[in-house]
Amino acid sequence: RTRGATLGQSAVGIRVRPLAAEGLPSWGQAVKRWVTERVAAALVGLYLYLDLLWSLWDTRRQALHDKWPGTVVVRTR
Known about the structure:
48% of the residues lie in helices and 13% in strands. It has helices at 7-12, 27-43, 45-54, 64-67, and strands spanning 14-18, 71-75. The protein is globular and about 30 Å long.
């Protein structure tokens, strides 16, 4: 939340931002993103694969774990 990216995301030149505006995701968005990405994947194994593939056909290139919190991943370089 504080940088908009994990160390790995920073290393490859991407970060997370709110869909509606430039800036850092809120704490609420960060928690929602974590919950949908980690907890749902742990509970439903098929969700993990669908989540990873979803951005291939989404018009905004969002994965499923970006939908609920309203975030998007963007390039920084």
